[in-house]
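To the wet lab folks,

You asked to see what we're planning to order before we commit. Fair enough. Below is the target structure as tokens, and below that is the sequence we designed to fit it. If anything looks off to you, flag it before the synthesis order goes out.
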């Protein structure tokens, strides 16, 4: 049984094909392929959270590629990766601000947890796909000081 998010992605693919939006069609087809591969690995359908995790990983990969393209002197390819990221972000909940993440971290610290590993273990499920893990790590370090 497909999740609502997965169904939305499939519907968007049909729309992109109807409107002959080749770029969007390729991005969405690739995303659905990544979801399907993940389902094969998991040996079952992904739930909403699983699909979001695949999308978040795809965004992270494209951001890393974009950074490498820019440092390699290929800004046109980096712009393409950035455009793909914008399409993929449309399938995730709105991003969190640094202040919102800082509050989540402070609330976790208030429960008595004062070590990096356990703190990250508590906050990551709350922010996954909505805020960079690297930036969250920095905020946790700042709050623990």
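Sequence we intend to order:
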């Amino acid at each position: 049984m497909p999740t609502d998010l997965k169904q939305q992605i499939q519907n968007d693919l049909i729309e992109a094909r109807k409107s002959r939006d080749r770029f969007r069609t390729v991005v969405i087809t690739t995303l659905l392929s990544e979801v399907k591969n993940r389902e094969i690995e998991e040996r079952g359908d992904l739930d909403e959270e699983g699909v979001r995790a695949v999308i978040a990983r795809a965004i992270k990969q494209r951001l890393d590629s974009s950074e490498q393209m820019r440092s390699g002197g290929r800004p046109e390819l980096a712009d393409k990766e950035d455009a793909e990221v914008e399409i993929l972000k449309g399938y995730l909940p709105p991003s969190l601000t640094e202040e919102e993440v800082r509050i989540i971290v402070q609330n976790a610290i208030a429960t008595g947890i004062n070590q990096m590993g356990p703190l990250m273990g508590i906050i990551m499920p709350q922010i996954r796909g909505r805020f960079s893990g690297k930036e969250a790590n920095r905020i946790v370090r700042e709050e623990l000081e």
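Structural context that might help your review: The mean pLDDT is 90. The chain has two domains: 4-89, 98-144.

Thanks,
Computational group
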